[in-house]
Each structure stands twice: as C-alpha cells, then as structure tokens.
Amino acid sequence: MGNFGRNFGELSGGINNNLGNQTVTYLEGVSSDPLPRYARIGLGFNLGILYTSDKVEFQPVAFKWTTEANDILVRRYPPVIDSSTQTVLRDGYWEYQTGLGDINFFDEVILGHTNAQTVKKKGWELNFCGLLSLRGGRFDEDPNHGNRRFSTSGWGFRTSGITRWLGSENVLGFILNHVDIRYDHSDLTTDEENHPLSGTKFDSVQIIILN
Predict the structure, then answer these.
(1) How far apart are CA 33 and CA 126, in angstroms?
(2) Domain hosting residue 43, numbered range
(3) Alpha carbons 51 and 89: distance in angstroms, whole number
(4) Cα–Cα distance, 76 to 97 (Å, whole number)
(5) Rounded to the nearest 10 degrees, how much is the dihedral formed by the CA atoms of 192, 195, 197, 199?
(6) What's the total number of domains in the chain?
(7) pTM for this entry
(8) pLDDT tens digits for 72-96?
(9) In-domain check, residue 95
(10) Are 121 and 70 in contact (CB under 8 A)?
(11) Beta carbons of 7 and 22 less than 8 angstroms apart
C-alpha cells in the first residue's frame, strides 16, 4: 500500500546583481556604450503531491510558478537640441544606476504590473510523475525600450521519471536510473505578427549520465 499526501511546498525568492563599469568603444573612440549592469528580483513557489510506498517515492503532480523583474541599470539621456536652429545644446549621455534601478518590487513582482523601464518575466510548469512537463510563460518589454513582447508554450519529457514506477532492481530500471534522456520543445508567439521573433521554436535533446 502507498500513501498520497500534499506534504511538500516551497516559496522562494532572490535578488541578483551583476556589477561592472566597463564600456565598449566604437569608431576609434568616437562613441561608446556601457557594458550593462543587471538587477533581477523575483518570487516563485513549488507545490505538489507526494506518493510513497515501500518500494517507490515520486510526485504524481507538481506545479511551479515564478515571476521576476529585470533592469540593466543603465539610464540614458538623449541630446538636447534647439528646435529652431537644430543646434545640439547638450550631447546625449548615460549613467549607471545603483541598487535595483527602476524595479519596484511590490508593484511589479507582487501586484504583477509592468514598468516601462524594466523587463517583466513570468512562467509556470506542470509536471506529471517526473515524466512529462507542460510549460508556459510571458516576456514583456516596453515598446520604446526593446519592444520584445511574447508568450511561450512548450513541453518536455525525461526518461528518468520511469524509474519511479519500475524501481531500479531490474536491468531496465538500473539503466534508466543512470542514463537520463531529456527532450524539450517550446514555441514563441509574439504580440506583433511580423516581429523578428515571430515563429521562433526551440528543440533540445540531452543525454545525461547520472552517478
């Protein structure tokens, strides 16, 4: 006999900052761009059901969800031009930002609102028995700051989940317990029909040797 129990769940969060102060120079020093710093802050949770018996232990259903906000921590200022004479009164310039930059944690990560100065990402995964995963996600960027806005959908399969059912006592179970074959597929759907990213697909196959 086995037992089902809703006995695992996890809430996680994190902050990541990539700091630097270098530039990339073009045209023999005439112009330059900053190597971006990067800030990322997000939340996620993992819920599921755990089945246990004398021989096996696996998760029949597991669900993951994450959301995060990102900022490259570079603020740009356009040149100031006299509208009547078209004279440049001040050259454009840029400066690095500190901390989380323009990220508003509560408004963006908790409430789910967008911010013209940052990038918003979110995604989910529904997994069945460690074998099959269904996934979806969303990427939002301001039209005046990159204009990448798309949704993703996909699925994945991994053979190591089979050992949850077979155990590892027999030859097939032993092999599957040490060789994990993973296949993943995803499609990207842009908000604009003729966007350069429209129709993007991703496929991967991995063969992983486990100890």
Answers:
(1) 41
(2) 3-16+39-70+104-209
(3) 70
(4) 10
(5) 70
(6) 1
(7) 0.77
(8) 888 888 888 887 877 777 777 888 8
(9) no
(10) yes
(11) no
